[in-house]
Amino acid sequence: MVPGFSFTGSCSGTTLQVLGGGPVLPVGFTVRTTAGSLIGTVTGGTYPTYTVTPGGTFGTQLMDAGGQGAAVPTLADSVFFQSTASFTVTTTGALNCLDLTVSAGVHTFATGTSPTLSIYGSMTLVSGTVWTTTASKTFRATSTGKTITTNGTQLNGSVTFSGVGGAWTLGSALTVNALTSWANGTFSDGGYSLTTVTANSVVTTTRSVDITSTWLVTGGGSLCWNFSGTPGLSVTGNGTVSLTSASPKTFNGSGASHATITLNQGGSGELTISGATTLFNITNTVQPATVIFPASTTTTVSNFNLTGTVGSLITITSSSAGLAATLSKASGTVTVNYLSIKDSTATGGASWNAVNSTNVSGNTGWNFGGVIAAVSTFLLMFI
Amino acid sequence: MKIEFEFETQYGKFADALWFPEDQPIPSDTEIEAMKQQRLTDWLAIIEAPPAPEVVDVTEV
After folding, report:
1. Residue boundaries of the structural domains of chain A
2. Could you give the 3-state DSSP secondary structure of residue A114?
3. pTM of the model
4. Which of A181, A195, A202 sits opposite B46 (nearest CB)?
5. Per-block average pLDDT, block size 10, for chain B (61 residues)?
6. SS3 for A194?
7. Which of B4, B7, B9, B16 would you mutate first to test chain A, the one with the most A CBs within 10 A?
């Protein structure tokens, strides 16, 4: 049994009336009652009145279009929801389509039984669409030029980009209340914000992720940003990845250089950088906060702009006490304020100055100066 | 019709777009500004009260 979309309708003879808004039914769709009684196959008509053959007589009730073994949309079929009325689309089973377009109405996509959704084209939602279904969504296009425009609709369920040779560009900000992952193809944010609970790219296939805006990763844990799959991964763009969780979280960008990307510590939970990582910049938008760098590993940066405030220091330390983590910047001068620094080796050719900062222990290459360091020196002399 | 907009926030820049179907009336400027603010409010709400992560098989595609 292959389920399809549910809607409310009424049937008399060979005339099927879609009620209360509902899907546009292509010729060939089989329509049944949700109890399983056959109504017929759509052979003509236009929304909301269709001809079905064979017909039957059914009162107003919930019907199932394209379900129960009948022709459901295939990867070659585009699905349009263009009724101005509101209705609920229940997603059940493994669903496929080419383009998925909602162009009118206020429709709710709800969870049925074990739904998954594979989209081989573009996805366009009109503002006001409600996407509560937890169906995992996999974009499987194998050609370029696909767009994803959610228009303010937050997507429940994970999102995966997985079409060899596919290319997707956002047409508006994208919010995924689950995991977003990249397995194949080329993805660009189009200059729009992307928000997700967790993000990963852990396979070894060819894929490219272009980050030109601000991406928020709101979840915590060790797989918060896991871009460790290598080879095959390319990360481009000059955007920012901000990890905003108040719980401990990990950034693993070891699968590809993030040399043009800014990593922002955007939540009070300590941020652990895992693996050898190359970044354009490291920043923070909260204080106090902690950034933990990998012990005995080099983190390479073009800029280093962690900044604390009076009484709210940014703590940087190593993942292993007593074993230094190395920060490397090729040239220029780094000047940080209000940091607490422990087990850190600053190197690479740049000058590393820590002003108003605390030299805890195990540091090499840092030039400590300013108020806090001066007070410490004075106290030592007094003792 | 597409209207792009962005806000600078304490969490960084929020960039989004409003799309309106060609065959439907365009909202007033006041309505459009309200829509922009609503998008921003929704975005900020996710940051400040994020959804719980779901358990998934991260290697399945």
Report:
1. 5-65, 79-382
2. coil
3. 0.81
4. A195
5. 93 93 86 96 86 53 43
6. strand
7. B16
